[in-house]
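Re-running DDE Tnp4 domain-containing protein to confirm reproducibility after the cluster update. Everything else is unchanged from the original entry.
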Amino acid sequence: MAEDCLMKAAVSAISTVLLGETESHGIYDIAMNEIEMSLNEEHIVSELLLCLQQVEHQPTAATPDYYEETVPHYPDSIFRSNFRMTRTTVELLCEKVAPLMRPANTSTFAHPVPKQILTTLWLLANQESFRGVADRFGLSKGTTHYIIFRILNAIKSLKNDFIKWPSKELCEQNAAIFKERTGFPGVVGAIDGCHIPVKAASSDQDSFINRKGFPSIVLQGVCDANKKFLDTFVDRSGAADYARVLRLSPLGQSLSNPLKARELLDEDFHLLGDSAYDCSSYILIPYEDYGQLTAAQQKYNSVHSTAHCVIETAFDLLKERFRRLKHLNMKRIDQAPLLIETCCILHNLILEVEDDDGDDDASLTNISLLTDNSQECDGANGIAKRRRVMVSLSE
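Result of re-run:
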């Protein structure tokens, strides 16, 4: 009798630990039925182990009809808080994505496009696991993984529609807005990089460890005065400094070619970067401060900082909207750029459609943007242009 009570207590404790208070009752009943029919202690142990193996493969109960019943009754504010955009924006996204999807000829494709998109948005907006997202939307883990990357690829194919370099007319408009808001002339956009923390394989850690000591990949972005991305590039090596990432990017390669550079930026236009970049006629950076700056140089740096900080705000907003970017715990690091680029595209879509600076519940924390301030300004044309701007700001 004592052994029987002890065995019952063991089954109850193990099932509760593995499944929780509510879900444990079912597996407890199954286990005890098997044990009570056993004839000896050895058989009892084997039956208990068999029951525990069944527990390991017992699927977590899916959220019943979350997409079909719960989401349609969300107030607009809750819908936007959960999916990071309004219903109107989701409808527009569905219209853009639906033509890119293959015909629904299997059970995977049978799920409606809006459900696939909301599943993807939920994953991007949270740090919830794939299994958790699958349970919420009543899908298997494999189907969820397939759906999400299918949607990510579809949205990525729309990049040129939402992230594009401005025409000459728009460059003039951007410069006018920067000048009105900050006083800095000729600014088409601000350029910077930010580190997206990732889970890197131990065998490949060195190429991902940044100077702050954690593994990451670099997102390079250029944004306008309204925090809209004009250009993005993802480099898979967090160990690379921002100047090197720029050289590797299509934008950097275009700026290194005088003919292509003039197609992007007229002589009077430029980007603003921090001291991680080399000074050129296309990217103006601050004066290095060794304690001997003139009043004019100090004013230049102050106005430059005010104008340049918009890209930091854009990165903050991006990470706050799509919190998956605060740490990408992905087994395949080669898939990370796809996810990051998709978030940038959605960021621009939201700004275009909603004309809003962020979520009602989002506190835009100062996310640390890693920069390298050790590089000196070079390039005669850039130095001369920077001096002209400095003089104009002092007049």
